[in-house]
Amino acid sequence: MRTHAKHQFKPSSNFAQFQLAPRAAWSQPALLLTTVAMVLAMVGLSSCAGYTSAAKTGPGTTTSGVLSASTTTLAFGDVAVSNTSTQNLTVTNTGTAAVTIAQASISGAAFTVVGGMPSGTIAVGQSVSAQIQFAPTASGATSGAITIISDATDSPLDISLTGTGAQAGLSVSPATWSFGNTAVGHTTSESVKLTNTGTSNVVINLATVNGNAFGMSGLSLPRTLPAGQSMTFTAQFAPNAAGAAQGSISFTDNAPNSPQTLMLSGMGVAGTAALDASPSSISFGSVTVGSTGSSPVTLTNSGSSTITISQINISGAGVSIAGLATPSTLIAGQSTTFTARFSPASAAALVGSISVVSNASNSPLAIAVTGAGVAPQRQLTVDPISINFGSAAVGSSTSKTISLINPGNAPVTVTQFTASGSGFGVSGASLPLTINAGSSSSVSATFAPTSAGSTSGAISIISDAPGSPAVISLSGTGVQGQLSATPSVLTFGSVATGGSTSQNVTLTNGGSASVTISQATASGAGFSISGLTTPITLAAGQGTSFNAQFAPTSAGNANGTITISSNAPSSPTTISMTGVGTQPQISATPPSAAFGNVSTGTNNSQTITVTNGGSATLTISSVSVTGAGFSISGISAPVTILAGKNITFNAVFAPTTNGAASGSISLLSNAPGSPLSISLSGTGVASSKVLGLSTSSLSFGNVNDGSSSSLSVAVTNNGNANVTISGVTVTGAGFSTSGVTAGEMLTPNQSATLTVQFAPTTTGAVAGSVSINSDATNSPSTISTSGTGITGTPHTVALAWTASTSNDINGYNIYRGTNPSGPYSTKVNLSLVGSVQFSDSTVTSGQTYYYVVTAVDSNNVESTFSNQATANIP
Fold first, then answer.
1. 518 — phi, psi (to 5°)?
2. pLDDT at residue 15, as a whole number
3. Is the pLDDT confidence value at 726 over 80?
4. What is the mean pLDDT of the chain?
5. Is 599 helix (H, G, I), strand (E, B) or coil?
6. Are 199 and 168 in contact (CB under 8 A)?
7. Contact, 340 vs 298, CB < 8 A?
8. Were 237 and a residue from 141, 266, 659, 818 both cysteine, which residue would form a disulfide, CB within 3.0 to 4.6 Å?
9. pTM for the full model?
10. Beta-sheet pairing, 386-393 with 470-479
């Protein structure tokens, strides 16, 4: 008995050493393969020759035969179970000598040769054709091969065979449906979806309706439904007598789960009593915590028989009703009104309902209730924040109006006004002064100079609003012995385009002689005067007044001057005027809301921002929404938005039926181009939970006893609702799983990787299965497993590679596959390899393996694969 030594292949052998070009900041390793075989054999060291792949040539050989196939893989794709598919294969002698075929064989379940097979001698340039058939008897992927052994230099010639058995499946959604109460003689309908959940066509041949009160429409049979597609029809309930009814619709087809049954139920209600609510839904908008919002609701018996209201059920924090006692009776055509109230105790959104239970056919009647509790906010703004009284005759008095505005949502109480500065005062205030939310009040600032000259002062306003006290600066000039205008400066502030405002101007002769005014003119766009006719004479101490108007025609700052010509020494007397033409502008972001797919019974919302991009206050006087399933929250007209500010509200889509829906939100305001329309769109889709597998079967082939092999399966949520996995069950000796555990949840389109390991402890074939239990409609999902434990001679493949040139490499990973171009599905190292060598002792006799290496840097980023090395195990 001889013992074979380990054989290290050098770079000069067929397993050549390669160095890949650098990738980004670090390089890949180049792989150098050596194969070590520990084999007890009687034939001597010559048995190790199978590790090379050199061409079969002999001394002095000048010609040789070479067989080439028209394809290296015949892929049949999806073929329905019990059907067949046939493809042609051509084998050609592309060498320089005739080829004699010793044997041609085919392997793999469901693959057969139905015409021709290479045999005998094939001359140079000659071709032979064969017809290969795939006839699956079960669903799932399968593979095989054609092997041709000859005296050609490339013998044996292998052609891979692949195909998948496809199976149909039909699901009914909903699987059960209750029509609820329906008046006798009336019809209620419901849309039903049929979906082909399999991988081949479903032919629906027959639909049978059971139950006299039930029917269907919109389904013409027979009907072919392709894989993955759906169709809908209408189920109907038309009771001809009062009482409960049960029925069903059964479908007969070619799917394995045929027949499928839709269970139906309903209640026939005598009479035509129906209860209506106006409004059908209530939006309280924003209500301050500690206060109450209310809305009247009118209930009307629109039927022909008496209705008894037996119970009122209320949901939603802070919601109550008043004015409706139970039981309460409404004869046909009669109405009653009650008050719905919202008294929020905290700042939070309200989503609730008022449910009216009665003997009406549409009981219970649900009235949706929405709103929002908002925290109290006190605010006080003053306008103007500074006042210049201009020139005032000594001994006279002039005043200016001060506006006190509460833009908050809680009352503000003013407790004190204090004026400082010679001649300044406050009038028209009764303390304490309470200003309700959104309201305003006014007082007067006065200036009565007692001597000539300029003076200044202030008014301090003390309140319970944040930032108290508010301070208004004051200035003015006392004049004497000449013509004066009061005020000498007119500040009109902000005025909306198209509107107008006016201020009174007083002219006073403060001297000791008369003054004759010869002319008075106004300049500046939008400015004018009235009430002053010239010429006019003022005696000493006498005065006259006129009005100055500002009526802007465009937005922006405006300046003007009133010029009064007289015989006074200071002539002309001028009064400067300023004002701002303002105009609101409204815009919405986004300008349209697309909700996409939303499951029926749920809702989705989008935030809409409304911005006043103009220079005047924007007032939204009306907000309305159209479209089935669409609603709004967080906004209630009227709404005031200051210039440059914005508000937000929510657009909500809550579909109750399947299908596309569209609508719009309309905002009526004082801005140009009103109303502003925001388009809405969305699609109601039925909720579904479907768990998919990347493969339904795993074949491990031969695995040495005491070693193991692993394969992976992708588990994917193909529905539109979350799927929760409740457990994974494994059968079959030596099989185990990892990667997917009980309690794991997959969101729609999310995948998880399930690793299945086969570690035989005895020889022989083993079959088993892996079942994944979940709340999906197709649970459990099952994967069939098979493998064979063998007792083989231990072999070791020694690998060596060139180190990466990067400086931050933490180690290397080694991957192995059984196909020459991948995939490399088995990682043979349990942890990163720190050196540039590795020995793989998990190989199986008679198998060919293909290896690649990757480098992993300090950020755990892995390089692409190195060059491939091949090991033939004897």
1. -95, -25
2. 30
3. yes
4. 86
5. strand
6. yes
7. no
8. 266
9. 0.29
10. parallel
3-state class of 422 per DSSP? coil
State the virtual CA torsion across 808, 810, 815, 820 in degrees, nearest 10.
20
CA angle 424, 411, 318 (to 5 degrees): 175
- DSSP for 275-331, please give it: EEEESSEEEEEEEETTS-EEEEEEEEE-SSS-EEEEEEEEESTTEEEES--SSEEE-
- Mark 204-232 as b/e (b = at least 16 C-beta within 10 Å): beebebeeebbbbeebeeebebebeeeee
CA distance 750 to 349: 32
Contact 236, 187 (CB under 8 A): yes
What whole-number distance in Å separates Cα of residue 448 and Cα of residue 341?
53
Question: Quick one: DSSP state of residue 64?
Answer: -
Spatial strand order in the sheet of 140-150:
73-80, 157-166, 140-150, 99-107, 120-122
For β-strands 188-196 and 586-589, DSSP reports them as: unpaired
Q: What is the DSSP letter of 467?
A: T
Summarize pLDDT for 379-415 with one digit per residue, the tens.
899 999 999 998 876 667 899 999 999 998 889 999 9
Other CB atoms within 10 A of residue 479 CB: 24
Residues in the chain: 874
* 655-673: average pLDDT: 92
Instruction: Work out the burial of residue 730: count CB atoms within 10 Å of its CB; fewer than 13 is exposed, 13-18 middle, 19 or more buried.
Output: middle
Q: How confident is the model at residue 37 (pLDDT cuts 50, 70, 90)?
A: very low
Average pLDDT over residues 647-674: 93
DSSP 49: G
| Residue 616 pLDDT grade (very low, low, confident, very high; cuts 50, 70, 90) | confident
The span from the CA of 31 to the CA of 19, in Å, is 8
**103 pLDDT above the threshold of 80:** yes
Residue 180's pLDDT band (cuts 50, 70, 90): confident
3-state secondary structure labels for all residues of 116-173: CCCCEEECCCCEEEEEEEECCCCCEEEEEEEEEEECCCCCCEEEEEEEEEECCCEEEE
**Contact call for residues 29 and 836 (beta carbons, < 8 A):** yes
**DSSP category for residue 864:** P
Query: For residue 229, what are the contacts with CB-CB under 8 A and spacing of at least 6?
Result: 195, 196
> Averaged over 699-706, what is the pLDDT?
86
Q: Do residues 605 and 682 lie in contact, with contact meaning Cβ atoms separated by under 8 Å?
A: no
Q: Are 418 and 474 in contact (CB under 8 A)?
A: no
Task: Give me the amino acid identity at 840.
Answer: D
**Can you tell me the mean pLDDT for 173-187?**
79
Give CA separation, 455 vs 389, 458, 478, 487, 575, in Å: 10, 11, 8, 15, 19
Query: Phi then psi for 302, rounded to 5 degrees?
Result: -90, 5
Question: pLDDT band at residue 800, thresholds of 50, 70 and 90?
Answer: very high
Query: What is the DSSP-derived secondary structure letter of residue 865?
Result: P
Dist CA 129 CA 74 (whole Å):
14
- C-beta separation of 232 from 195 below 8 A: no
Q: Give me the pLDDT at residue 271, please.
A: 60
Angle at CA 667, nearest 5°, toward 665 and 670?
A: 170
In this structure, what token pair is assigned to residue 801? 């590679």
Q: How many Cβ atoms from other residues are within 10 Å of residue 611's Cβ?
A: 17
Residues 6+ apart with CB under 8 A from 404: 380, 381, 382, 414, 433, 435, 440, 441, 442, 443, 461
**pLDDT tens sequence across 825-846:** 898 998 899 898 999 888 877 7
Place of tokens 């129906």: 274
A 10 A CB-CB count for 487 gives 24
Report whether 61 contacts 97 (CB < 8 A). no
Q: Are 247 and 216 in contact (CB under 8 A)?
A: no
Confirm if 719 and 692 have CB atoms less than 8 A apart: no
Task: Report the C-alpha gap between 390 and 392 in whole angstroms.
Answer: 7
Angle 526-528-530 (CA atoms, 0-180°, nearest 5)?
A: 150
Instruction: Tell me the per-residue pLDDT of 331-354, one tens digit each, with 9 for 90 and over.
Output: 988 999 999 999 999 888 888 899
